[in-house]
Amino acid sequence: MAIVVVLVGSWLGYQQLADNDCSGQIRLNVAAATEIAPAVDRAAQQWSSKGAEVNGTCVAVTVTGVNPAAMASTIALKHGVTLTGLGAASKSGTIPDVWIADSTTWLMRLRSEASGFVPTDGKSIATSPVVVAMPEPVAQSVGWPDRKLGWGDLLKRMTTGNSLRTGIVNPTRDAAGLAGLLALGSSAGGGPEAKAQQVAALRALAAGSSSLRDDLMQKFPRSTDAADLASAVSAAPLSEEDVVAYNAEKPVVPLAALYLNPQPPSLDYPFAVMPEVDLTKSAAATGLREALQQQSFKDELAKVGLRAPDGTVGAGFASPIGAPKATPAATGTPNGTQGTAAAGLDAGSINQALGSWAAITLPGRALAVFDVSGSMKTKVPTAGNLSRAEVTRRAASQGLALFDDQWAVGTWIFSTEMDGKKPYKQIVPITPLTSGRSQLQASISKIVPKDGGDTGLYDTALAAYKSVQDTWQAGRVNSVLLFTDGVNENKDGITRQTLINELKKTADPKRPVRMVIIGIGTGVDRNELEAITNATNAGGVFIAPDPAKISDIFLEAISSRSGAR
Fold first, then answer.
1. Are 468 and 479 in contact (CB under 8 A)?
2. Any residues with CB less than 8 A from the CB of 294 and at least 6 apart, and which?
3. Interval 183-213: pLDDT, tens
4. Dist. CA 483–CA 375, nearest whole Å
5. Looking at residues 229-251, what average pLDDT do you find?
6. 369 FRET partner, CA 20 to 30 A, in 32, 249, 259, 509?
């Protein structure tokens, strides 16, 4: 975990408190994204030196610079969940009183997995627009700084013969990378061709991805030599602050910042007071946040390449060529889960983007189990009156195209009496996509409703879970992805209680299997489905009341990592 403690500021704060007439001391611990931490620390110590207090008790502030992904991982661990792509955090990590991440999207991701994570305040204290960083010679070749480009232009260049060598910081670990991923996804549009283009762009990004921002920065060209320019990263979604900091080092090849349309979610630096904080510390945090709204802090932000929350800049800001004088304001809300970074977003749209990324970059094994009971013939008005089965086949085909060759996938179908008295039938066993992709693609055509067939949910869920666990492989996410549009109706099958007892008996923390159930339409019973997934050690229930949205719900399910290892 990369941590930088601002020791000098903490010592000065202690000295200043010693000179104040205070009855006691409130120690406020602040963890801030590394780029903003020095500015926050200087402002905090100025505030303390002017007699910061709560009801006569002085406030001492310690500011620690922490990578947002590292802090998110620590918070997730404390709440018993994990976030896609972050891995396990150190058990010795501590939760601060105030967390200033670089983006509200971190708060949204945590809140979607951990219902107990409800920070307060959440107001933005700074902002930095997300741009596409290009070496200046490359940027000039595409018309910068005179020509205004859009994300659609970038998408086209990534997927045609005039493709760019794109890079990205892993969007599961970097808010600017996530913003770029969201922008590319929204620019792709709908339809099969657009989806194929989006997948191609994702694969291009994945090929040039880096786990850390510093690693990506090292991939930009170090000289104007043609061979160096051709082999280096030529475009990457980063924050404006990243470009400012990079150019401050006076590189041989500076970076241009391209402000593409439509503007993706900005980094908005929410001031989030953690749920466990008592009223006294909460009052101290409010006082600090008010201090961070002064003009003096705006100038401190300018020194580290950041804008004020209203998008304007303070004195000394090293504005990139072509940068707007102001960008849209960042405004948080009391529950700490919204802001400019979240404008037009919800946890679902974020998880859909991360689900696409996970399918392409994370190795996995999945048994996809499809309901073919008679009710799957029901027409879906929002999908041009296709049947639920047809909508499901389309979603399955798109999902399979998205999965990278690192995955292994199998398919079952279920109703009642599909294989003798068994309500389920194997179509393709879990097979590596390197060799079985065409066979699996063909198996999707078997998702055909059975006339008069009921829903043998309980027996199928148990059999599928045991099948994946029996073939469990380390180093991969092992999952059951079960699609159903109804409730259990198999009179000859096991009871719910028998299913729950058997799942609890079978579940093995050392060999976790994610049981993910995707409910199609309004005929499912969430309580029934959650009773099934809760009996396992990983997974969840995702409902698509409108079956036309099943592809989006599927991507959310792929992204979710609650309980998974």
1. yes
2. 43
3. 887 776 666 666 677 778 888 888 889 999 9
4. 13
5. 95
6. 509
Separation between Cα atoms, residue 74 and residue 110, nearest integer Å: 11
pLDDT band at 48 (very low <50, low <70, confident <90, very high): confident
d(CA 301, CA 182): 26
For the segment 520-533, the average pLDDT, to the nearest whole number, is 95
pLDDT of residue 193: 66
First to last CA, the chain: 19
Tell the residue number behind the tokens 């990983």, with chain if given.
538
Of 398, 413, 406, give the one whose Cα is nearest residue 432: 406
* Cα–Cα distance for residue pair 174/397, rounded to 1 Å: 29
Residue 55 reports pLDDT greater than 70: yes
Beta bridge partners of 514: 479
Match 């150019």 to its residue by tokens: 247
Note the pLDDT of residue 23. 66
Q: What is the pTM for the complete model shown?
A: 0.80
Three-class SS of residue 338?
coil
Q: Hey, how many other C-beta atoms are within 10 angstroms of the C-beta on 163?
A: 15
The answer to whether residues 38 and 30 touch, using CB atoms and an 8 Å cutoff, is no
E-assigned strands of 14-86?
25-32, 53-54, 57-66
Q: Is the bond into 262 cis (omega within 30 degrees of 0)?
A: yes
Both tokens of 251, joined, read: 């590189």
Amino acid (one-letter) located at 378: T
Using a CB cutoff of 8 Å and minimum separation of 24, what contacts does 71-79 make? 71/31, 71/96, 71/99, 71/101, 72/101, 72/106, 72/109, 72/110, 74/1, 75/99, 75/110, 75/114, 75/117, 76/110, 76/113, 76/114, 79/110, 79/113, 79/114, 79/116, 79/117
Q: What is the DSSP string of 441-469?
A: HHHGGG--PPTT----HHHHHHHHHHHHH
Task: With cut-offs at 50, 70 and 90, classify the pLDDT of residue 563.
Answer: very low
Among 56-65, 82-91, 404-413, 475-484, whose mean pLDDT is lowest? 82-91
Top-confidence residue, 520 or 560: 520
Task: Measure the CA–CA gap between 74 and 95, rounded to whole angstroms.
Answer: 7
DSSP class of residue 237 equals E
> pLDDT grade, residue 21 (50/70/90)?
low
Q: Report residue 447 as tokens.
A: 């998702």
Q: DSSP character for 224?
A: -
Nearest to 385 by CA among 547, 524, 268, 550: 547
Q: Tokens 């049947």 — which residue?
A: 387
Q: How far is CA 43 from CA 16, 213, 297, in A?
A: 14, 26, 6
What's the CA gap between 373 and 334, in Å, rounded? Answer: 46
CA atoms of 185 and 538, how far apart (whole Å): 28
Stretch 284-302: mean pLDDT: 95
Q: How far is CA 264 from CA 108, 424, 480, in A?
A: 16, 45, 34
* Nearest alpha carbon to residue 297 among 561, 38, 7: 38
430 and 386 Cβ atoms separated by less than 8 Å: no
Contact 281, 28 (CB under 8 A): yes
